[in-house]
UniProtKB/TrEMBL annotation:
UniProt name for this protein: 1-acyl-sn-glycerol-3-phosphate acyltransferase
Top-level taxon: Bacteria
Coiled-coil zones: none
Nucleus listed as a keyword: no
Swiss-Prot/TrEMBL keywords: Acyltransferase, Transferase
Organism: Funiculus sociatus GB2-A5
UniProt key word Acyltransferase: yes
Residue ranges of every copy of the Phospholipid/glycerol acyltransferase domain listed in the record: 35-156
């Protein structure tokens, strides 16, 4: 299996887990251009699920600890994910790696909610606030024809099991305060799920011109809020 491409590995994992996926608005997926995929995040299989839905390999930025834990480290590497660096180098490393990938017309994926919905289970139709690093990336990257694509994962049927003790993960990543607590890391596995593709937002030269001075904060907020609202609307449609 591990000699196959990330897309083939994703399809294998979904088949092994018997995950039934229904994809909507596939015609909205941009082709032959760099894409930044933005999605909600509740399950360890979100990355392979999105690859299977979009039918393109996606280079996901993932939590730092995923690059430290044996076995998990091998899986994320085979899927083409790149774990974030330690906190002191995290933002710089993320921007450098993601820009390099986008310049080679690849698809980069981000989960702007961070680790919280992975550690503290939330209802399928709920979503937390977005961190805005992805918006800074999109506006800062010197890449032509960049599309930011919001995607909603709306679980219809799932199982939730206990994965590993949170405090065990703290040995691999002491920078994450969520791991410094009792309990187990939940493992959400979808049995049936809708994946709804949102309307892409193309990064125009005008948006990049506004990304400076006092206007920068506003254009970053607009892009972040657009993606959050688009995914929230799609979740309401998909979680029936």
């Amino acid at each position: 299996m591990f000699s196959d491409s990330p897309l083939q590995i994703s399809q294998f994992l979904l088949s092994t887990l018997s995950t039934r996926m229904y994809v909507y608005h596939e015609d909205r997926v941009p082709h032959d251009c760099p894409v930044l995929v933005v999605s909600n995040h509740r399950s360890v299989i979100d990355a392979p699920l999105l690859m299977g839905a979009i039918k393109r390999p996606i280079r996901f930025a993932c939590h730092h600890y995923m690059g430290q834990v044996p076995v998990m480290r091998e899986i994320v590497n085979q899927l083409g994910c790149f774990p974030l660096e330690a906190p002191e180098h995290r933002q710089k490393g993320f921007f450098e790696k993601a820009i390099q990938l986008l310049q080679h017309r690849q698809v980069v994926g981000v989960f702007p909610e961070g680790a919280k919905p992975m550690v503290q289970v939330t209802p399928p139709n709920k979503m937390g606030d977005f961190q805005r690093g992805f918006a800074h990336l999109a506006l800062r990257a010197p890449v032509k024809n960049l599309a930011v694509l919001p995607v909603a994962i709306a679980s219809l049927e799932e199982t939730i099991n206990s994965g590993v003790p949170l405090r065990l993960l703290s040995f691999f990543d002491r920078s994450e305060p969520l791991f410094d607590s009792p309990g187990w890391h939940p493992m959400v596995i979808y049995r049936r799920t809708n994946v709804l593709i949102g309307r892409p937002r193309w990064i125009s030269p005008q948006m990049r011109e506004q990304y400076q001075g006092k206007q920068a904060k506003s254009v970053v907020a607009d892009l972040s809020n657009y993606c959050h609202q688009e995914i929230a609307d799609l979740l309401r449609q998909g979680c029936y």
